[in-house]
Amino acid sequence: MRQSTLALALAAAFARTPAFGQATVDQKLQILQQEIDDLKAQARRSAAPTQQASPYSLDYSSMLDRSSGLASGGTNIVGYGEVGYGKFRQSGNATADLQRFVFGFNHRFDERLTFHSEIEIEHAVVSSADHGEAAIEQAWLNYKVSDAANVKGGLFLIPLGILNETHEPPTYYGVMRNQVETRIIPTTWRELGAGVHGVVGEGLRYDVGITTNFDSGKLDERTTGIRSAHQEGQEANARNLAVYGALNYRRPGLLMGGGVFTGNTGQNGASNPALQGVSARLTLWDVHAQYRIAGLDLQALYAAGTLGDADKVTAAILAAAPTPADAFAAPKTLKGGYVQAAYHVYKQGNFDVAPFVRYERIDIKQQEDPANGLLQDPNNIERIKTFGVNFWIHPQVVLKADIQRYATDKSQDRFSLGLGFMF
Fold it and tell me: What is the pLDDT of residue 246?
């Protein structure tokens, strides 16, 4: 097949070549070479798999972008994973973990309708006796009316912050995800709902919609902030819904944007009767920016939130606790931010080395109830310094190393190594 195709290309080239006396041999060879180069280029385009953009290009690819090259009826497999090793400074203990492995399927029904999904397995083993977890991270349909108007529905990521939508390990610095976009914005955060999104003008992307919300009756002290009230699309109590909106502006080397998410979380006491009739309105918002020039990569983010009726939520938690020792104070305000700088000191072919430094501030204030022993957890007010390096051996495969120092909870000081990939 290849020989016949090449023969056709050569024949076409000779057919367009002037008569022997009207052109030189060099001219004929140039025409033939051009035909061969065009044929090779066409073969590469038809055979090349869909790939994400370079993790440091700021042209981050979404699940929607990953299926853009599929023909109608086509399906592809995407995924990512990360392995981490951490040695703690204070105790000397060390842990190694397959933190997560994620795979998903994208399908294009036709030129307008697509499906996107991800399935996540955390900590390698899933059983009642282990810490592992299996979850659907995304499962949504997208209908493209135009570049400026797409309609989506299903389980999808909330467009707040930078990391929540773009959380594959090769796309961020450091072995662990930053704490601001873990404790304040509960990455990876997804909701069931519907939305409209698109690109208008030159690089201005919007995303608005209505979704399920948190359930403040499900708060517990396993995690900080409001993460434990996240329902993840699992028989979610949906008496109280939420609305969200995000706006991001992208140009070569520049990203600027922000988003907001708001709605009541009392859910009419569905999971805690003491919250019946309590609004407990949650509002989270953020602003962020990233700028890259030459080898310098700068990034900053600030996020904040409030939980209304925090005193009533705290009382409900106390009433539902098996013993007073199991109760804790609900968060009433959440805020945090970070600044980060990286410099690509070496880049040759697929190899890219970038040392970085990041400084984070976390401030989660709780609704205290001294009479019942519910006080502010000092570890919820934290300052974190991270120094490290990312070494990409391919734009989709990265090795990482970093050192972290905590101002309040010194037991979290550590040295970490990581391996991450995506496809």
Answer: 98
